[in-house]
Write a structure and sequence with these properties.
By secondary structure, this protein is of the alpha+beta class. The chain is built from five helices and five strands; from the N terminus they run ααααββββαβ. A hairpin with a 3-residue loop joins strand 2 and strand 3.
Length: 171
């Protein structure tokens, strides 16, 4: 079996143009959409993907494969593809205009995004809530939105939420 590493929607669009049999197997029979159409359609897939994820999490919880006794929260920097902006000696725009600079003690300065997530850590490890922000987004600002995004089990959110030292602020 051959695996193709597709790192972006642009690479997916190019791959489908180069491999019409794969495009046809994906249901793209008439014409392969443009890059802009791909971006627009993948953006609209966010809500159905969340619905499917919530159904899967609910099924796993009903079968007692997930336990809500211990939840862990953390954030991680993700480097953006392409080149970062440069201001000196000549100004050059970034390849990804939505990304920003962020600092991590382990990674240093990174041009990209920050992935925030909550996972179960009791019996089975599974993601239950996640968000992506620019790299400048501080982890403490995402606790509230992530907790609201966490599914309720039998009408309440229960258990312990554990995070690293970044979450020990007064916010």
């Amino acid at each position: 079996m051959v695996y193709q590493r597709l790192t972006s929607l642009r690479s997916l669009e190019r791959f489908l143009h180069q491999h019409p049999a794969v495009a046809q197997a994906c249901g793209l029979t008439a014409r392969i959409p443009s890059y802009r159409t791909f971006c627009r359609r993948f953006h609209t897939l966010e809500a159905p993907a969340w619905t499917a994820a919530r159904q899967l999490i609910g099924t796993l919880a009903r079968r007692h494969w997930l336990r809500w006794g211990l939840l862990v929260i953390d954030g991680s920097l993700l480097a953006a593809k392409g080149r970062p902006p440069r201001t000196k000696p000549q100004r050059r725009p970034a390849t990804d205009p939505d990304a920003s600079w962020g600092y991590s003690p382990t990674d240093g300065w990174v041009w990209g995004y920050r992935l925030h997530g909550i996972v179960t850590a009791d019996r089975t490890t599974a993601p239950v809530a996640w968000r992506t922000t620019t790299a400048t987004g501080h982890e403490t600002t995402q606790v509230g939105p992530l907790l609201r995004q966490t599914p309720r089990w039998r009408g309440k959110r229960r258990g312990w939420l554990v995070g690293d030292g970044t979450y020990a602020s007064q916010r």
